[in-house]
Prior knowledge:
By secondary structure, the protein is of the alpha/beta class. The chain has a single domain (6-260, 391-490), classed as Amidase signature (AS) domain (Amidase signature (AS) enzymes, Alpha-Beta Complex), CATH 3.90.1300.10. The chain is built from 16 helices and 11 strands. The strands form 2 sheets. An 8-stranded mixed beta sheet has the order 4-6-5-10-11-9-7-8. Helix 2 (20-34) packs antiparallel against helix 3 and helix 7 (217-227) packs antiparallel against helix 15 (459-472). The longest helix is centred in the last third of the chain and has 21 residues, at 369-389. It is globular. Bound molecules: asparagine. The active site is at residues 76, 151, 175. Heterotrimer of A, B and C subunits.
Amino acid sequence: MHQFTIAEIIRGLRDKQFSSVEITRHLLDRIQQLDSNYNSFITVTGEMALAQAAAADQRLAAGEAPALCGVPIAHKDIFCTSGVRTSCGSRMLDNFVPPYDATVVEKFNSAGSVTLGKTNMDEFAMGSSNESSYYGPVKNPWNTDCVPGGSSGGSAAAVAALLAPGTTATDTGGSIRQPAAMTNTTGLKPTYGRVSRWGMIAFASSLDQAGPIARNAEDCAYLLSAMAGHDDRDSTSLNRPEQDYTLNLNDSITGLKIGVPKEYFGEGLSTDVAARVQDALNEFEKLGAELVDITLPHTDLAVPAYYVIAPAEASANLSRFDGVRYGHRCDDPKDLRDLYMRSRGEGFGDEVQRRILVGTYALSAGYYDAYYNKAQQVRRLIKQDFVQAFEKVDVIMGPTAPSPAFGLGEKKSDPVAMYLEDIFTIATNLAGLPGMSLPCGLVNHMPVGLQIIGNYLEEARMLNIAHRYQQVTDWHKVSAPSIAEAAATEGE
Ligand SMILES: NC(=O)C[C@H](N)C(=O)O
């Protein structure tokens, strides 16, 4: 049952091939048996999942269940879950049990989906390898000596290891797309404001956006349909009607104009990755699309601008963790200053502290204009690059990440090398555009992701484009070797 996609689970539940309790129990057993190899979950909510599954089975029997009713999923541990610890991958929140659900979680709960647990992540979503988690690194199911990408590495690995058919994730500078690329999963970062940020622990509020990771575009469409929608509790939530993103998946893409930015194929890109992406572009030509050379001239400024803006916003957002109201509190503080210093010093890991320092510096008097204002000006130029490109083309395509998954520990002590992982994904966040990653081939037995960047609010079109590609290719169906091996030994 663990091989089933979300679309297959929806059909199977409706046709009474299996119940929600059966598939939920099966996946919980798998998580218990296998996740020690991957560490993709921080918390498994077995009892709650089975109760939700039983309730979903009743709704299904009554014949009035929404699409995702009874479908087991898992949430990134950045989404607040009522009564269930929400750690954000940090010691700071190791003891935090929220009294409420994030809007995203609330929406899935009312759609009747089942929560298997909370997935591992880089601490406060800061990282591209999942090595900064307080709960230990996540291992890539394709090669457990390699990282799964980050920060949503647990969400991506859980899907790749067939422990959950779909997961929620967040993307501030690539955190959905880069792990999706490294684990052969499909991930979508929607337009900024499409999905509510309420109850999603804030990293960089002008960039943070939630989205799904699943085995294919069709499943992402189901998940996005449940997640997206206006929310009064998030002031940047877009006031657009909810829609069914599965409706246009089969539309023709003949005549589609695909922009291919020359800056995405230059320095830093592995030639093998470039070749797999080129294969995918050729496939799109066969489907009737036209490739158009474009330029996004400010691409090389995206990483430097992001690493001023994101830490600046993070330094403000994370100031709420003071050891007074909730979260980690040091033992026997001498005075208030000692309480702040030791609670924050002990509660936050190295990467989080580095970003708070960088952000505080960039915002401080005398440096604000030189760094923060400059970065905001660069952000505008990057956005204009895209606006101009979308006058000529319908979508943009290129690699998601410069190379396949790297070894655990390989970039841990070199923050700049780690930051360059997001060289192709960050500009999308700065511009607020939607971006996707989908499997497009292997290099040395490790997956490669194709990135699709759409114009504002074009998620349905992007999912349609990705789905058409997945109808004529099988890359997304290839299982991680560790799964294939396990299946062989079980004699399945
Ligand atoms: N949160 C993200 O989107 C990940 C990005 N690599 C960062 O460390 O900021």
